[in-house]
Write a structure and sequence with these properties.
The chain has seven helices and six strands; from the N terminus they run αβααβαβααβββα. It is α+β, with helices and mostly antiparallel strands and about 190 residues long. A six-stranded antiparallel β-sheet has the order 2-1-3-4-5-6. Strand 4 and strand 5 form a beta hairpin.
Length: about 190
């Protein structure tokens, strides 16, 4: 598997969940939180933990993937840094995952506005002007989004506001960031 040798670790601060994809998203969110804010986007391959232990035992050892039947079913494996000079949508369009990858996840930071602020958005702004307008808006919120998809179409997301930067304040749900989920899902299409 062409993967980096780092993976998010268990911290014990994550809420319990039965869904492996939700657990992977929360694990990645927790890992990103440990790195701090103002960081570039991070891309992860999601691999079946049992398959990883069977087919790549050396990598499983380096990732500290427990040989425990109760361990998480999906192991996030951090990929190389995303190129800073390529727009995210263009970069994602270049990805083709090997069969061993069950899913993928991306975590990134963005500024968000409430619907009331979006309604006041001036028309005709260039991309740079829009970025500046949002960054200067008094109601802006910094958010870290972690979105994961699987080859079979499942989706999960986690949102963490900078102003409420604790594991108990993370919002999860399958449809929180639909456009990013769609872009990640396209990395698995055979087109």
């Amino acid at each position: 598997m062409p993967m980096d040798n780092t993976a998010p670790g268990e911290t014990g601060s994550l809420p319990p969940t039965a869904d492996p994809l939700t657990r992977a998203v929360l694990e990645i969110d927790d890992y990103a939180a440990g790195l701090g804010w103002d960081r570039p986007a991070l891309l992860f391959a999601l691999v079946d933990t049992a398959r990883l232990r069977a087919e790549e035992p050396g990598l499983a050892d380096r990732l500290d993937v427990a040989d425990d039947p109760g361990a998480t079913e999906l192991t996030p494996v951090e990929q190389d840094e995303l190129p800073p000079d390529v727009p995210l949508d263009e970069f994602l369009a270049t990805i083709a995952w090997p069969d061993a990858v069950t899913g993928c996840a991306l975590t990134l930071e963005r500024l968000m506005l409430p619907p009331s602020a979006e309604a006041a958005l001036p028309e005709g702004l260039s991309e740079d002007e829009l970025t500046r307008w949002v960054a200067e808006h008094p109601e802006r919120r910094e958010v870290r989004m972690t979105v994961a998809v699987t080859r079979d179409g499942r989706r999960e997301s986690a949102l963490r506001l900078r102003e409420k930067d604790t594991p108990t304040e993370v919002l999860t749900g399958a449809g929180l960031v639909p456009n990013l989920a769609e872009a990640l899902a396209a990395t698995f299409s055979d087109d």
